[in-house]
Amino acid sequence: MFLLFIIDIAICGTKDLGILRCDLKANHIVKETIDGCNKYISPNKTNYGLFKNNCLTFKTNKTIKFSSTISDSDKASYDQISFYFYENKPAAEAGTIGIASLTILLISSDFNPVTNPNEAIKSQMDNATWSELKLQLNFIAGMDRYAAVVKFKTSTYRSILPGDSRAIFGLEPNYHVTSKIENFYNYFPFNNNPDIIPVGTTGYFSIAAGSFIQEQTSEERSNTVLGAIAAAGGAFGTMAGVIVIFFGDFRLSPRGIAHNFFNLVQNSKEFFERSRFYPKLELKFSKINDEDKALLVNEFSNIRYSIYYHLLNQSNIDEMSKDQRWFLNKLEYKLKNLYNKIYHWLLNTENIGKLFRVYKIDREYYKFSSINEEDERLLNNKINKIRYVIDVYLYDTKSKDQKKLAEYKYERELKFSDNTNNEDKELHIINEEDRKLLKDEFHKIRKLVDKHLLGKPNIEKIFNAYNSLQNNNFSEDMGEDKKLLTDVFQQISYVMFRHLLDIPEDKEIFEKYKENVQISNFSTNMNHGDKKLLVDEFDRIKHVINSHLFNERKNLDVFEKYIVKRELKFSNNMSENDEKLLNDKFCAIKETIYNFLLNEQKIQTNINFSEKMDDKDKESLLIYINNFNNEIRNIKNDIDSYILNKV
């Protein structure tokens, strides 16, 4: 079946112009009669300037379509639309020598600068089509006591806009599409006794598709970058050489210039941040006073210096647990051995060492003078969580409380108070500017702790994904299904992030997660097709999670459907906001699964050497093993990504 969406129709005449009725026909039979046609025509007249004034606009927002073959199930498909109009004959003939008439203009709803004067003119074809409309070449007359039969056919012109980088390079261009309509029409006089028309009708016209084949013209660039490379000696060979140089030969050297340069920049940046030349921490609060600011700056600085001292002495810190072995990157290691004195001076080793030893003992509960008690407890609580991780990994704390370590991972959000009724206005809540400063600083500190102490630099990203998936703002249009969808998304989120962030076990949520969502779980108000789409998508996601976390046997067919990038197309019964929210949720879940579950790194890096081995030999061997393990991790990620795309 061929379909064409209805176009916009401008109907212009005298100020007394009125549409008495419009008939929607299928197979030459009237399927729907609309008196006044007020369902699609705005009662307010529009002034089209250069075209006409006193115009009515027939606009359906693509809810009506023309169809070549129409069945009873096609409720919105028709093959003809008829209009009966009234025109004030004396007024219409006052300035002409002809019979009373009105004008009809068919315009593509995809390119309609007439009804939308702000429509962007981007290409030469846009200008040509717009000029044609201005010259009124597409106007058709509807005459008194005559029937005008108008047929149209549509065409599109796909332009390549100037500066399109994809087209210049030789890839598929980002085409700009201009829609155009061509018309042809015939006139027939009314018969002597037209008894089927509304009383007061002075004229009639009908609109039908003259052709259901849409002509499409596309521009192509004859000269492209890839074409030039191919002419010079073969695009494939050149491109392969560039890829090997920048990204490595995966069989021999899995990392190329691009990876190594990126790592060098990152390592150099971190090295500079640890040096004596990096500016000292300065928090520019607007409401928090200088006394409280000094306390916070001191705490944040001490945490940083503890981590920096740990990086300086990863293989020979006496207080450090022997189970935790960390090593310097290759560049820093060479610098340390070749220019030992300069290295220690540059990183201010002596001063950082003193602060490191003092900080182990110097712990206090901060009492702030310009922050209320609730926010004071919040800040101290967050600082204590970070202190505990530092104690466990740097100061040889004997007991390792997994519950406290887990709380550090999943309790990261700073929820400041909102006590607007506080009588003491000097101790009112922290304002938005200072909240942002504190949140940013805690974010930077946790990033250092995650990477250099826990060896898990993605915890902050995982937590942000966890936070975003907790919000399910479905509209009230969902009715009874709103709670069901919210519960299912929370169950899936809980299972993933319980594993990733060590969230405490909740048996009730987990038991509900194990129950598969059925079509029958949804209310009768939801479209059956929408139910099936949701059930299938939930099944695929749960299968991938279960096969990874609970050793469920993998079904390759399910994995193949799961990895396909797609947007779920729901019925018109679902609002656009809910449809977008559902697609965004599924996309976020898939990204979390791919980035954090399927690419988990489980390679052991902690090795206990015997006391007989020389310290320098230990350090050299650890550096070699670390570099080797990094390559293995990167290769593993590449293989996982390749296999998942080929399953």
From TrEMBL:
Spans traversing the lipid bilayer: 225-247
Keywords: Membrane, Transmembrane, Transmembrane helix
Name the UniProt record assigns to this protein: Uncharacterized protein
Protein's organism: Rhizophagus irregularis
Upper lineage: Eukaryota, Fungi, Fungi incertae sedis, Mucoromycota, Glomeromycotina
